[in-house]
Design brief:
The protein is of the alpha+beta class and 428 residues long. It folds into 3 domains: 2-91, Rossmann fold; 125-180, Dna Ligase, domain 1, CATH 3.30.1490; 191-427, 2-Layer Sandwich (D-amino Acid Aminotransferase, Chain A, domain 1). It is built from 14 helices and 23 strands. The chain has helices at 10-20, 51-60, 71-76, 78-84, 98-101, 103-112, 126-133, 159-171, 239-259, 292-296, 304-312, 351-355, 391-402, 418-427, and strands spanning 2-7, 27-32, 42-43, 65-68, 89-90, 120-123, 140-144, 153-156, 182-186, 191-200, 204-206, 211-212, 215-217, 221-224, 229-232, 265-275, 278-285, 327-335, 360-364, 367-370, 373-376, 380-388, 410-411. The strands form 6 sheets. Strands 12, 15, 18, 19, 22 and 23 form a 6-stranded antiparallel β-sheet that branches. The chain has a 5-stranded parallel β-sheet with strand order 3-2-1-4-5. The structure holds adenosine monophosphate and glycine. The site of adenosine monophosphate has 13 residues, from strand 7, strand 8 and strand 17.
């Protein structure tokens, strides 16, 4: 088979790496890809948002399966476009992608189908939102309705902060039309965990759990980022919790989307807050998580192409996932200054030495090949990933590799996975 992966981050490197391991696959292309992906697949210079360009390429190269990494092409309707021309593509339709593209849609859907989530209200104008704050209790969570590259959520501690967020989102339109509506919801307390499922529209399989580290600094301090590291499995996701999330979140979502006339095919990502009154959905994504995927895929023993083919053909009912018992940790190395401004073009050294290590893989995100060297080209640069017999040894081995890699002004968190160790010792 010839497979095309759409996207250019660490998640896409992990997908290309896993897809390449399938005996069904002869050739992998990635659009647009990055420096690391170019070592194992043919990168093509087409943006992930250029869905017409991607369609043309898929026809030209007679691509047998297209796999979409990021949300933007999904919300632009890449799946509908490819399927209308008879091309096989793994991901949800534009209508199903509303679970991520519209927080108003997602919250109303959850309310309708009794899926546990924070109580909420939606507002279409700033005046009524501000009126509501007069009697609301704080902290309160304000969310722009549409896609905002992970920056559309504000936790306001008081009315002044809430009014400011509303002004920025609804009046100054910092997220453009994504801020035409807002969701305002109760602030939930607890620990977050990511639970992903793969669905063919009717059947689904739930993937093992993982946990992201969203803040830039150790101990979850500082501003939010795209994700500074991840590990899988997450000890907080006990068998009981996984069962509850499956019954109360995954199953009703797949069934509900079918009832809405919008079969959900692809990856359903539930961002869960584990609260004292059970798991509650913080958000849905309609794609693999980044960096969760980097920590999940090295543990998946199945042939991912076989699974994706089955999902595209409505055959997931016959599939059972098999997991490596080991733990996996991914430490993200960033350009100094990220998530603010940062410099690029810095040469990365030490990668070859890491490639020799067993059970380790360095997934590239913001890198490119320049004069036979790998240089930085983005904020999140590498996802240094390692398996270990338990979380402690996976952490040790991932950080041993991090210590071998260097680029000017590189930055990373020192505590990826630390929460899991605390949790494991409590459970044991
Ligand atoms: P979202 O894009 O909806 O996942 O929100 C991004 C992040 O904001 C989540 O990962 C949480 O850390 C936080 N968040 C979102 N909704 C809530 C909530 N209702 N209560 C507390 N934190 C939240
Ligand atoms: N790790 C969060 C996300 O993929 O949206």
């Amino acid at each position: 088979m010839k497979v095309l992966v759409v996207g250019s981050g660490g998640r896409e490197h992990a997908l290309v790496w896993k897809i390449k391991a399938s005996p069904l696959v002869k050739k992998v292309y990635c659009a647009p890809g990055n420096g690391g992906i170019s070592k194992i697949a043919e990168c093509v210079d087409i943006k992930d948002s250029d869905i017409e360009g991607l369609l043309k390429f898929a026809h030209e190269k007679k691509i047998d399966l297209t796999v979409v990494g990021p949300e933007v092409p999904l919300t632009l309707g890449i799946v509908d476009l490819f399927e209308s021309e008879g091309l096989k593509i793994f991901g949800p339709s534009k209508k199903s992608a509303r679970l991520e593209a519209s927080k108003v849609f997602a919250k109303e859907f959850m309310y309708k189908y009794g899926i546990p989530t924070a109580p909420f209200k939606t507002f279409q104008d700033s005046h009524s939102a501000k009126q509501f704050f007069k009697t609301a209790s704080f902290p309160i969570v304000i969310k722009a309705d549409g896609l905002a590259a992970g920056k559309g959520v504000v936790i306001a501690q008081n009315k002044m902060e809430a009014d400011k967020a509303i002004d920025q989102i609804m009046n100054e339109k910092i997220f453009k039309d994504a801020g035409n509506k807002v969701v305002i919801e109760d602030c939930l307390l607890g620990e977050e965990v990511s639970i992903l499922a793969m669905s063919d529209g009717e059947n689904y399989v739930v993937l093992d759990s993982s946990q992201d580290h969203k803040r830039i600094f150790d101990d979850d301090l500082g501003p939010n980022t795209g994700g500074m590291g991840a590990y899988s499995p997450a000890p907080i996701a006990t068998i009981k919790l996984m069962d509850e999330v499956e019954k109360k979140v995954i199953e009703p979502t797949i069934v509900g989307m079918k009832k809405e006339g919008s079969l959900f095919k692809g990856i359903l990502y539930a961002g869960i807050m584990v609260t004292s009154s059970g798991p509650k959905v913080l958000e849905f994504n309609v794609r693999f998580g980044d960096p969760e995927t980097q920590a999940i895929l090295p543990r998946l023993k199945n042939d991912i192409v076989e699974l994706m083919n089955a999902a595209c053909e409505g055959q997931l009912n016959d599939m059972e996932l098999i997991w490596e018992k080991k733990s996996c940790v991914c430490v993200v190395m960033t350009s100094g200054g990220y998530p603010g401004t940062y410099e690029t073009g810095k040469e990365i050294t030490g990668l070859e030495e890491c490639e020799k290590e067993k059970d380790c893989v360095v997934f590239h995100a913001g890198t490119k090949k320049e004069n036979e060297k790998i240089v930085t080209s983005g904020g999140r640069v590498l996802g240094v990933t390692s398996l270990g017999r338990d979380i402690e040894s996976a952490i040790t081995s991932a950080y041993n590799m991090v210590d071998k890699i260097h680029f000017d002004r590189c930055f990373f968190r020192r505590d990826i996975g630390a929460k899991a160790i605390k949790k494991s010792s409590l459970i044991a």
